[in-house]
UniProtKB/TrEMBL annotation, chains A, B:
<dbReference type="GO" id="GO:0030429">
    <property type="term" value="F:kynureninase activity"/>
</dbReference>
<dbReference type="GO" id="GO:0019805">
    <property type="term" value="P:quinolinate biosynthetic process"/>
</dbReference>
<comment type="pathway">
    <text>Amino-acid degradation; L-kynurenine degradation; L-alanine and anthranilate from L-kynurenine: step 1/1.</text>
</comment>
<comment type="function">
    <text>Catalyzes the cleavage of L-kynurenine (L-Kyn) and L-3-hydroxykynurenine (L-3OHKyn) into anthranilic acid (AA) and 3-hydroxyanthranilic acid (3-OHAA), respectively.</text>
</comment>
<dbReference type="GO" id="GO:0097053">
    <property type="term" value="P:L-kynurenine catabolic process"/>
</dbReference>
<keyword id="KW-0663">Pyridoxal phosphate</keyword>
<dbReference type="InterPro" id="IPR015421">
    <property type="entry name" value="PyrdxlP-dep_Trfase_major"/>
</dbReference>
<dbReference type="GO" id="GO:0019441">
    <property type="term" value="P:L-tryptophan catabolic process to kynurenine"/>
</dbReference>
<comment type="subunit">
    <text>Homodimer.</text>
</comment>
<dbReference type="InterPro" id="IPR010111">
    <property type="entry name" value="Kynureninase"/>
</dbReference>
<keyword id="KW-0378">Hydrolase</keyword>
<feature type="binding site">
    <location>
        <position position="205"/>
    </location>
    <ligand>
        <name>pyridoxal 5'-phosphate</name>
    </ligand>
</feature>
<dbReference type="GO" id="GO:0009435">
    <property type="term" value="P:NAD+ biosynthetic process"/>
</dbReference>
<dbReference type="InterPro" id="IPR015424">
    <property type="entry name" value="PyrdxlP-dep_Trfase"/>
</dbReference>
<dbReference type="GO" id="GO:0043420">
    <property type="term" value="P:anthranilate metabolic process"/>
</dbReference>
<feature type="modified residue" description="N6-(pyridoxal phosphate)lysine">
    <location>
        <position position="231"/>
    </location>
</feature>
<feature type="binding site">
    <location>
        <position position="230"/>
    </location>
    <ligand>
        <name>pyridoxal 5'-phosphate</name>
    </ligand>
</feature>
Length: 405, 405
């Protein structure tokens, strides 16, 4: 098919190194908690793999909770309180104390809640929303809608430009913790501090960081945050997103989507709205229970796993991948968009190359699953819970072969 | 325990009549499509029963589609197009041609989309939203938020007051097709016509009518509609709601939640928003696939079932229930809140009685499941797909016994 681009001794050395790294990996046994096959699955930053115990759990939810208990499950199976219970399970993964997160709705809907509520908490005369110009597009679209409905102006700036863009008029800044395309990790502590120094509120989108690295929401005084749960949290396709509202701000959180689930007495069926205290006020309508409880079950793979250990392994994996890519692909075939500095790297590697769409198709055909981002980016996500160094070496080797074709 | 309130010959006569009615019921075999037990389940207007084939379908979705195909399922298992495919499956049940409904989000979120978009389509100077004062509360709370964000005023009126409340300033009217508490069916054709005659738009909430009676969205020119799918559509706990936008209005549908799923080129990842054509523009973020596909599977119980037949049986069931309640409970023990006229009756019977909460608990303990609505209402929902006349007689008989205690 193709000439190997690294010498055979070099390949043997990398494979041996991978075995050594896998043998020393304390997280290696966690892989057994997932239903995996021989594929090297490097797309957990798009859809996390299936935790092995989830199918039986879902069978119970469907057959017994819905099928037998039916309506009684709202109380007896804990359906009604699932959004806040799951929020509290996510909380330690993003550095939040309990009572500040609820699960539910999509990330887009939660961005809307967070931004509109933030503009309502902003000081007098603060009528500008700053949004990450490099964001996953939906955040920008929703920010535009929030600005339009609240009479604010909207300005798109890169995270690097945020400090100089902040001013007396800034109400809120919406930023991504990790850029979905390049895998660049932004400096949440210092950007949050700069935003606060200007008197504005910070809203962070954690879709590409939660479950892959420490976030420290409470420690860094983040005001509001949103995130999805189907990437590094492995909650299942389209599993519910979540909303974090810092406890001090909760009394002033004034939702643009005040559905009955956020009422202080939802079953009182009062015609007038009175918000529940705490994180509950981020709820809206009846939650998607099947998706919600699959997510709750999936979060059990985190039992006994520390985010610090995950972060250490994530950096070791991406370091090793970059080294292997360099060895196997040779110079000039790919351009790495992901920062080399650990402080600026999430848990994915983005490589720009010619014909990226075609290259990714061939990789997938050969059992290495990453994804393609228009127009020329190969994305490889590293989920330390189930990705090993051997997988990583194999992926880089096959990529090198395909690039050499 | 208690004296029977109907004579034994009378009870025997009603039981015999129930058997005759069940024997003549063309829909009786449809009950086999559900996982049911000996309980008389009259709470399908809150959570529909489990269709028997759904557990196996969900096992496949979880184990194979998520667990084995993983990310490929977005294309290969049709995940991406589920919202509009499911919308088209719901369409005939509510009298809509294809291409006008998308499934996704909660009812509350869809009410928000519909109301804000409607105010944007309303004529010059039309800045008042009318909302059903008797509505399920969430619609009112969301309407208040929509009014606040769009600079409109909000006025709560009963459906009966709508014609006289309409005027040059009316932008949109949000009405419930069936009152969740009393089971009263409102006159959708004539109210929609009155709303249109005044130059306003009509938004209907179909939560308590879809799947229980003909709606005729297209026939009656309804502008926008929303509904849940976990009641008479049996989609599962908190299953996704849906949004209908009449095809002629779609080009002007300007969503307040323009998430990336509603973009004309969602994978182009453009920083600027351009809405998809058609019903797709009602989508927002990534759909909850597990809940979505359970709903899709559940809708198969409708194969070969006509809504007209369901409506005919529904009226026969509620007529028979009211007759049995009258015979078994005697005069004065309960007050029926549901209209006697077929033209004004949905598919539930609401009875007001003393100690309603306690009475319902005792009914449930005896295998008759309805629900209690604060402060004094017993609600019994009749799902013609799986409720028979024998069930109905038994429920009324046990109710009579409990009321006589």
């Amino acid at each position: 098919m193709s000439e190997p681009t690294a010498s055979a001794p070099k390949a043997a050395e990398l494979a041996a190194l991978a075995r050594t790294l896998d043998a020393a990996d304390d997280l290696a046994p966690v892989r057994e908690r997932f239903a995996l096959d021989d594929v090297v699955y490097l797309d957990g930053n798009s859809l996390g793999a299936l935790p092995a115990h989830v199918p039986d759990r879902m069978a119970d939810v469907v057959r017994r909770q819905w099928g037998e208990l039916r309506i009684r499950s709202w109380a007896e199976s804990g359906w009604w309180t699932a959004p806040e219970r799951i929020g509290d399970r996510i909380a330690p993964l993003v550095g939040a104390a309990p009572g500040q997160i609820v699960a539910g709705d999509s990330t887009s809907v939660n961005v809307f809640k967070a931004l509109v509520a933030a503009t309502r908490m902003a000081g007098e005369g603060r009528t500008e929303i700053l949004v990450d110009a490099t964001t996953f597009p939906t955040d920008g679209y929703i920010a535009e809608s929030a600005a339009r409905l609240t009479g604010c102006t909207l300005r798109a700036v890169t995270p690097q430009e945020v400090p100089s863009a902040l001013g007396d008029r800034t109400a809120v800044v919406l930023l991504n913790h990790v850029d979905y395309r390049t895998g660049r990790l932004h400096d949440l502590p210092s950007l949050t501090a700069a935003i606060h120094a200007s008197g504005a509120l910070a809203v962070w989108d954690l879709c590409h960081s939660a479950g892959a690295l420490p976030v420290g929401l409470d420690e860094h005084g983040v005001d509001l945050a949103v995130g999805c749960t189907y990437k590094y949290l492995n909650g299942g396709p389209g599993s519910p997103a979540y909303l974090y509202v810092r406890s001090e701000l909760q009394p002033r959180f004034d939702s643009p989507l005040p559905g009955w689930n956020s009422h202080q007495d939802p079953f009182g069926m009062s015609p007038s709205y009175a918000p529940a205290p705490g994180a509950l006020r981020g709820r809206v309508g009846t939650p998607d229970i099947l998706s919600m409880l699959a997510l709750e079950a999936a979060l059990e793979v985190w039992d006994g796993v520390s985010v610090a250990a995950v972060r250490a392994k994530s950096l070791a994996l991406t370091d090793f991948f970059l080294r292997c890519v360099s060895e196997y692909s040779g110079p000039g075939r790919v351009q790495c968009l992901t920062p080399d500095s650990h402080a600026e790297r999430g848990s994915q590697v983005a490589l720009r190359c010619a014909d990226a769409g075609e290259v990714m198709k061939r990789l997938i055909a050969r059992g290495v699953v990453g994804d393609f981002r228009h127009p020329d980016v190969l994305r490889f996500g590293f989920t330390p819970l189930y990705t090993g160094f051997g997988d990583t070496e194999r992926a880089a080797r096959i990529l090198g072969e395909e690039l050499a074709r």
